[in-house]
């Protein structure tokens, strides 16, 4: 059950542009996303390539605050993804500067990231949201280097990244796990 205060605060103080795809709505994170996002981050099929461990509601809440914090600090961040047919929260897509302790460093790059509920995998939704997000970010930050990191076993996500021009430039270890570092060649 959503606490009453969260219902009252269902409009973020930070303005996040809304984007539409044929099947999905990209909008700012809302407090009411918390239960669905927490459920996703406790589904092994969802988190297996995202640190391979479930997250508590507190950790998910902090993740959401960080998504909005990027918008407030940098003018970019993550969108919550809502499936138009159901109105359900189903993931996120966006750009970040996480200041990761990683070699080679991604600091100062726009690090792309996308996640979708497993129930929606295989429908082309990742391509829809990444295409919309890239079309929004590139004209606003034309000189920025676009990067992403992906678990080497996440074949589907690697295929989406390559479809949009991301190419591997290094492999590293991050949080004791192998990771592929990719960057997008400018179109």
TrEMBL record:
Taxonomic superkingdom: Bacteria
Q: Which Gene3D superfamilies match?
A: 3.40.630.30
Which InterPro entries does the annotation name?
Acyl_CoA_acyltransferase (IPR016181), GNAT_dom (IPR000182), N-acetyltransferase (IPR051531)
Residue ranges of every copy of the N-acetyltransferase domain listed in the record = 24-186
Pfam families from the xrefs? Acetyltransf_3
Q: Which PANTHER family match?
A: GNAT FAMILY, PUTATIVE (AFU_ORTHOLOGUE AFUA_3G00765)-RELATED-RELATED, N-ACETYLTRANSFERASE DOMAIN-CONTAINING PROTEIN
Please give the name of this protein: GNAT family N-acetyltransferase
Q: What is the lineage of its organism?
A: Bacteria, Pseudomonadati, Bacteroidota, Cytophagia, Cytophagales
